[in-house]
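LysR family transcriptional regulator (Lactobacillus porci), 294 aa
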Amino acid sequence: MEIQALRYFYAVAKTENMTRAAAQLHVSQSTISRQLKALEADLGQKLFTRHSFSIELTEQGRLLKEQAADLLLMADKIEHEFRTWDEVTGGDLYLGLAESYQIRWLASWISQFKQQYPKLHYHVTSGDRGQVYERLDRGVLDFGVVCEQPNPDKYAALPLPETDTWGAVMRTDSPLAKQKAIRAEDLAGLPLFASEEAWEHDLPRWAQEKMGSLQLEGSFRLAYNGAIFVREGLGIMLTFDRLVDTSPGSGLTFVPLTPKLEEHLYFTWRKDANFSPIAERFYKFVLEKANEPR
């Protein structure tokens, strides 16, 4: 299986249109068609169902689309690392980040680092801890930020300087919006939003035996999307503070949970990672910043 054929496949899979994919890639439709047929022959599976004016992914095609994104990212990462190996003013960093207000620390470190290495390019993906760990393990990412203490046998980690506070985001006209804190029993039977990961791993530590009385209405990986549903009166979202706008006039209110539930975030990397030169420099830079007095 050739990387170029995989690039053609991924472009067509995203657009589900051969003409648009050909325009994006600046090649002819016949070139793409030929590459896709060769790819299907190599894999021994049909990847598309072709219609008059569009194409549709088969089950095998949908699976390959999911895997192709990381495969192509890895190929690009390898190419960029070797191309910029001797580049003393830059290079490429690959980071996977949890959603948190504390990401501001990482943004600040990158901003300062870029002053020393102006040709730095960084590639950021968002994901839950499972996704970040998986991509670290596969070598797709250099570093990650996760909402838990990583396994010390496998990962090295630095805690970010602050903690995130859990709470409930609701409409300002909600009866619960006037409370100083939210207990699990306050939410019993109400439609709730949270990430699947938080619902399974984090919130049970807070609700404990009352977890069974809580009702997950829908799950969101991005708090911004959940906030839109909250504004429509569809439910209450359990999330970190300062992820969505709850300022006066926003129509939303954040109320912390009680007992208090906090989360530490960790900047992490694989202990056995073989860093590129720019990733090695960034790793040492972050260590210095983390040890500075505040």
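Residues 189 and 267 are 37 Å apart (CA to CA). Residues 59-83 form the longest helix (25 residues). ok done for today
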